Amino acid sequence: MALTKDEKTEVVTKFSQAKGDTGSPEIQVAILSKEIDKLQGHLGDNKHDSPAKRGLLSKIAKRRRLLRYLSLHNEDRYGKLIKSLNLKK
Predict the structure, then answer these.
(1) How far is CA 55 from the centre of its chain?
(2) What is the DSSP code (8-state) at residue 2?
(3) Cβ atoms of residues 29 and 66 within 8 Å
(4) What is the pLDDT, as a whole number, of residue 89?
(5) Mean pLDDT confidence for 2-7
(6) Cys-Cys link to 15, which of 2, 23, 26, 55 (CB 3.0-4.6 A)?
(7) What domains can be seen in the chain, in order of their start residue?
């Protein structure tokens, strides 16, 4: 499920590193996490929605790759992001 414009701007302002930052790994992971939460809610109601299930799995995989990149390149930012999003390590 797509996020609304207001939801995306809220995430960008919360996780941006500098003014005008819209594509840092933190922002991408946060947006993916919001979309994953929405898709999980949708799949709770619509168990047999296979395209949504496939989209959910691809978003989870992309978030995992971004988190791995961040953990390898900057552990401090990775730790802060994990704590703020309440994700497992």
Answers:
(1) 13
(2) P
(3) yes
(4) 77
(5) 92
(6) 26
(7) 23-85 (1.10.287.10)
Residue tagged 């296979």 (tokens): 50
Could you tell me if 33 and 64 are in contact, meaning their C-beta atoms sit under 8 angstroms apart? no
Query: What's the mean pLDDT when you consider all of the chain?
Result: 94
Question: Three-state DSSP class for 84?
Answer: helix
Cα–Cα distances in Å, from 89 out to 23, 62, 68?
22, 15, 10
CB 15 within 8 A of CB 24: yes
Mean pLDDT of 52-67: 97
The DSSP result for 13-55, as a single string, is HHH-SSTT---SHHHHHHHHHHHHHHHHHHHHH-TT-HHHHHH
Cα 77 from Cα 79, distance rounded (Å): 5
SS3 63: helix
